[in-house]
Amino acid sequence: MTVQAAVAAAFRNEWGQVVATLIRITGDWDLAEECAQDAFTLALRRWPTDGVPRKPGAWLTTVARNRATDRLRRDAVGAAKLREAAAMTYDPDPDVTDEVPDDRLRLMFTCCHPALALESQVALTLRTLAGLTTAEIARAFLVAEPAMSKRLTRAKQKIRNAGIPYRVPPAHLLPERTPAVLGVLFLLFNEGYSATAGADLLRHALSAEAIRLARVLVALMPDEPEATGLLALMLLHDARRATRVDDDGDLVLLADQDRTRWDTEEITEGVAQLDGALRRGQPGPYQVQAAIAACHATATDPADTDWPQIAALYGSLVRMTPTPVVALNRAVAVGMAHGPAAGLALVTVLRESGQLAGYHLLAATEADLLRRLGSTEEAVAAYREALALAGTDSERRFLRRRLTDIE
Amino acid sequence: MKYMLLICGDETAAEHANDGCGGWTEEMVARGVLCGGEGLRPPMEATTLRVRDGELLLSDGPFAETKEQIGGYSLIQCADLDEAVEIASKHPAATYGTIEIRPLWQPPHA
């Protein structure tokens, strides 16, 4: 491995840890980022002559920490901050220190604090834990760089001035706070995963970051099966990435994807992670979604798909997260497992509830079920409705193809 | 950290004006986190004032006619925002109104 590659690897693996530790020591998020940056710059200069240290993370943390001490000493405000920092390393809550040896977990929970807006949570996570630059985050979310910079600054200001604690919440708050962390990681993954037209490489990198952070979370919270379930879910989706869109950027249906190009290594790992999580006997929505993804990923042929199992899993998921979109997915699965009439009955209930009014996938699902039932005329009308509501070109192209097929 | 809990509600919240705080005040005083607080009479009884170029300008009513109005406040001192959230969530007004948690302005380098 070249020195450049060693620094790049250290950046990926250690950035979050260095920043997290520096925030704990100094209590200053900007200073922590700047000193971490300085440490990596120094590594680029020193490692080619001195060699790559045996523990790059420890080397980088020490350099960043010394840098912070120097900079705090230099100004009068710093003297007060240093005393504060010294006091901060003493944690008066022994429960917290015992349970949480890793600063990255504090950082994750603080970035994902519910008192911050969701988009700030996501941006902060990417900046401080994953080490993406403000410009990169701005591009990934199609926001101008100054706007993203302002968003990050405001989020850090709020953490400081509103007294958002830098810690992993105590055990009694974990059940309400952990879903926020999992939610941000899943959102991050989906931002990268659902990127289609233009296939922005940077957005794909978001998925990779989400998987990496989920691995860290699983290692830090081994007793949280939903974290493991989320990792499994991401791996099982990611395994199909290469086949989700064709060369023109059009979506390819699961049934039409080239299964020989699915990443078998990721599928094997995803299934193994899921099994480990399920053995704990505390199912949750991420584990159930991963189980559904596993049913698809392990079917070598679309005809082998275990639809009755998938329909049953959606039944559980609807009870855990009773949203209309989950109910619609359940209708699709029931339509595959127990025939289009059974699926259509569920879709009709949803349509009558009015909850998905204007959602093109409601009409598209209905159209598909009607087509399979042989009700061509009604199917055509539903496809036309879906076509009028669809938001992207690739979806419109797909629906138009379907429409010409049956007309 | 010191926070002001601004207790807000629409006009229906006025029905609760004489309810008291159902043991919340006593609990928070015993915990040593409550520094003070009062309920406010309705905004229609407010008088709003400005001084411009030495001239005193008075108007009848609150500075902004909004649906949600501040009906009271509590001043608390506690460890961090998580504790402030926990304290505010136990306030009876949280179940019918809204509570805004505002950190108090800290003089620089205090």
CATH architecture of the domain at 4-92 in chain A: Orthogonal Bundle
Task: State the distance separating the first and last CA atoms of chain A.
Answer: 59 Å
Give the CATH level 1 class of chain B: Alpha Beta
Largest sheet of chain A, in brief, is: none
Give the CATH topology of the domain at 4-92 in chain A: Rna Polymerase Sigma Factor, Chain: A
Widest sheet: strand ordering of chain B: 2-5-1-6
Question: In CATH terms, what is the architecture of chain B?
Answer: 2-Layer Sandwich
Biggest sheet architecture of chain B: 4 strands, antiparallel
Oligomeric state of this protein: heterodimer
Written as H for each helix and E for each strand, in order along the chain, the element string of chain B is: EHEEEEHE
**Outline of chain B, from the CA principal axes?**
globular
Report helical residue fraction of chain B. 10-25%
Report low-confidence residues of chain A grouped into runs of 5 or more.
Answer: 90-100
Task: Determine the most extensive contact between two protein chains.
Answer: A-B, 11 and 12 residues
| Residues in β-strands, percent of chain A | under 5%
Beta fraction of chain B: 35-45%
Radius of gyration of chain A (Å): 24 Å
C-alpha end-to-end distance of chain B:
12 Å
Given helix and strand content, the structural type of chain B is: alpha+beta
CATH topology of chain B: Alpha-Beta Plaits
Layout of SSEs?
The complex is a heterodimer of chains A (407) and B (110).
Chain A: H1 3-26, H2 29-50, H3 56-74, H4 76-88, H5 94-99, H6 103-111, H7 118-129, H8 134-140, H9 145-161, H10 174-193, H11 201-220, H12 225-238, H13 264-278, H14 285-297, H15 307-320, H16 324-338, H17 340-353, H18 360-373, H19 376-389, H20 393-406
Helix pairs in contact in A: 1-2, 1-3, 1-6, 2-3, 3-4, 6-7, 7-9, 7-10, 8-9, 10-11, 10-12, 11-12, 12-13, 12-14, 13-14, 14-15, 15-16, 16-17, 17-18, 18-19, 19-20
Chain B: E1 2-9, H1 24-31, E2 34-39, E3 47-52, E4 55-60, E5 69-77, H2 81-89, E6 98-103
Antiparallel strand pairs in B: 1-5, 1-6, 2-5, 3-4
